C-alpha cells in the first residue's frame, strides 16, 4: 500500500472490537489482521505481538483520524481498576473484554446505523448497512494487494458510508429495498429532516438526548448508543435485551452507574461483550 504506521497501543484488541457490536463495518480477515471502513477510508490493522500494531495509513492520518476514533486519549486500565472486587460479574466481564475500546464514530453513520439496528441481529444490520453504502456511497480506492505485514483485503470493492446529501436522492422504495423493514420510514424522515449533528456536539447530555429522541424512530436505546459510540458521552449506559437480562440476573433489575460517571458506557460494553461471546 505504500503507507504504514507502527504503534504500541495498550488495551487494544481489534478482533474483539470487530465483534463487539458497536460498529458495523469491521471485519476480521484472519488471526492477526482486521479491516474496517470509517470516515470514507479503508484501514487494515496487523497485530505484531506485544501490543504492537501496524496500520495501513500515514503517521499524519493516524494522528488526525484514527487516534481519536480508537479513543486512545482515555485511560482504560484505570477504568478497569475502578471496578470494586465485590462486583465479581463486572470484574470477569472486564477481564474477558480486555482490549475493547469505545469507538468515536462519525455521527451521521452512527445515527443511521443505529436506526437500522433496532430489533435486529448484528449480521443482518451489517448486511443492510453494506447495501446502503454500495447503493449510494463513494467507491474507495483500495489496492487488491498489500505488502507485509498486511494481507490482501477481503473484498473486491469498498464504499464510504453515504452522506446525508448522497442519501437524499434515495426514494422510500430505494431505502426499503435495503432490507431495513419498517425502519425505512424512519431513515427517510431523518434524511429529509437533516439534523444538524455537528452543532449538537456542543449540547449537554440532556440536551443531546432530547434532540436525538425528537427524531422519528429514535428511542432511548438508540439515542444512548449514538451518544456513546459517536459523541463520546461515556456516561451513557444503553440498555438492550442483553443488558436487560444482565441487570435482572446479576444486579436486581438495575445496574448502578453512579460509581462510573465517565465510564458507564465502557462498563456496558464489557458486560454486553462478555454475556454475548463468552460461550461462543
Layout of helices and strands, plus pairs?
Blueprint: E1 5-8, H1 14-18, E2 26-30, E3 33-38, E4 41-49, E5 52-55, H2 59-69, H3 76-81, H4 88-96, H5 107-117, H6 122-136, E6 139-140, E7 158-159, H7 164-167, H8 172-176, H9 183-193, H10 197-200, H11 205-213, H12 220-229, H13 241-250, H14 264-277
Antiparallel strand pairs: 1-5, 2-3, 3-4, 4-5, 6-7
Helix pairs in contact: 4-14, 5-12, 11-12
Structure description:
The model has no long low-confidence stretch (mean pLDDT 96). Helix 4 crosses helix 14 (264-277), helix 5 (107-117) packs antiparallel against helix 12 and helix 11 crosses helix 12 (220-229). The protein has one domain (5-72, 101-229): Endonuclease III, domain 1 (Orthogonal Bundle), CATH 1.10.340. The strands form two sheets. It has a five-stranded antiparallel beta sheet. The chain has a two-stranded antiparallel ribbon with strand order 6-7. Helix content is 44%, strand content 11%. The longest helix has 15 residues, at 122-136. Strand 4 and strand 5 form a beta hairpin. It has 14 helices and seven strands. The chain is globular and about 55 Å long. It is of the alpha+beta class and 280 residues long. The chain has helices spanning 14-18, 59-69, 76-81, 88-96, 107-117, 122-136, 164-167, 172-176, 183-193, 197-200, 205-213, 220-229, 241-250, 264-277, and strands at residues 5-8, 26-30, 33-38, 41-49, 52-55, 139-140, 158-159.
Amino acid at each position: 500500500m505504500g503507507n504504514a504506521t507502527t504503534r504500541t497501543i495498550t488495551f487494544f484488541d481489534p478482533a474483539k472490537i470487530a465483534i463487539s457490536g458497536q460498529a458495523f463495518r469491521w471485519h476480521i480477515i484472519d488471526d492477526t489482521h482486521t479491516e474496517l471502513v470509517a470516515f470514507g477510508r479503508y484501514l487494515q490493522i496487523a497485530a505484531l505481538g506485544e501490543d504492537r500494531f501496524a496500520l495501513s495509513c500515514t503517521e499524519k492520518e493516524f494522528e488526525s483520524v484514527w487516534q481519536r476514533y480508537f479513543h486512545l486519549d482515555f485511560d482504560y486500565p484505570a477504568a478497569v481498576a475502578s471496578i470494586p472486587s465485590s462486583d465479581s460479574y463486572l470484574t470477569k466481564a472486564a477481564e474477558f473484554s480486555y482490549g475493547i475500546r469505545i469507538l468515536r464514530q462519525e455521527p451521521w453513520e452512527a445515527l443511521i446505523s443505529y436506526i437500522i439496528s433496532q430489533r435486529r441481529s448484528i449480521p443482518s444490520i451489517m448486511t443492510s448497512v453494506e447495501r446502503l453504502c454500495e447503493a449510494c456511497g463513494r467507491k474507495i480506492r483500495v489496492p487488491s494487494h498489500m505488502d507485509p505485514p498486511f494481507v490482501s483485503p477481503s473484498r473486491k470493492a469498498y464504499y464510504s458510508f453515504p452522506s446525508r446529501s448522497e442519501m437524499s436522492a434515495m426514494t422510500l422504495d430505494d431505502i426499503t429495498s435495503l432490507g431495513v423493514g419498517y425502519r425505512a420510514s424512519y431513515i427517510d424522515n431523518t434524511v429529509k429532516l437533516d439534523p444538524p449533528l455537528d452543532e449538537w456536539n456542543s449540547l449537554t447530555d440532556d440536551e443531546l438526548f432530547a434532540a436525538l429522541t425528537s427524531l422519528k424512530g429514535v428511542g432511548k436505546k438508540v439515542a444512548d448508543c449514538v451518544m456513546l459510540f459517536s459523541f463520546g458521552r461515556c456516561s451513557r449506559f444503553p440498555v438492550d435485551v442483553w443488558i436487560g437480562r444482565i441487570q435482572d440476573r446479576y444486579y436486581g433489575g438495575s445496574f448502578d452507574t453512579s460509581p462510573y460517571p465517565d465510564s458507564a458506557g465502557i462498563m456496558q460494553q464489557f458486560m454486553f461483550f462478555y454475556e454475548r461471546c463468552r460461550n461462543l
